[in-house]
Amino acid sequence: MSEKKKPKKVFVSGSISPEKIATSIANHQVKTNIGAHSIFLGQVRADEIDGKTVTAIDYSAYEEMAEQKFYEIREAAFDQFDLTCMHIYHSLGEVKSGEICLFIFTSSAHRKEAIEACNFLVEEIKAKVPIFGKELFEDETHQWKVNR
After folding, report:
1. What would the pLDDT profile of 65-122 be if each residue is shown by its tens digit?
2. Which of 38, 110, 114, 127 could serve as a FRET partner for 138 with CA atoms 20 to 30 Å apart?
3. How much is the pLDDT for 5?
């Protein structure tokens, strides 16, 4: 039985805290039909670009369109994989280097489904969701992020 219901809000303001991640994991201990979880954590890197270091990324999005894309991607994952549940959170606003900006958590009776679904979600989100990142540098300049 999947958790396929109403669209869930994906965006959170600022970084995703270790406490939120730990609580999500802890909340699943009562679901004894789950045999595996797969977790992806996207973290802001302190890249050096043209001699300047990224100190943060300021994320923005066309929220209504992005939430619709997240919903479509969630539904496709539930259709394609035998999941018990799934959680996706993405930051909006400023996230400092070293902090978490994307948290994907898939659960299934078996590890293969959880891992494959998690990988599918990461790739689909990167390819299809209109989220934009402005890299903020130590010298207070900025530029729009180019996915590498």
Report:
1. 999 999 999 999 999 999 999 999 999 999 999 999 999 999 999 999 999 999 999 9
2. 127
3. 53
* Domains present along the chain, CATH in parentheses: 11-144 (3.90.1170.40)
pLDDT of 1 > 50? The answer is no
The owner of tokens 């994989």 is 81
Assigned token pair, 97: 């280097």
Across the chain, the runs of DSSP E, i.e. the strands, are: 11-13, 36-43, 48-49, 52-61, 83-96, 100-108, 131-137, 142-144
Q: Is 102 exposed, middle or buried (0-12, 13-18, 19+ CB in 10 A)?
A: buried
Measured distance CA(50)–CA(137) in Å, rounded: 11
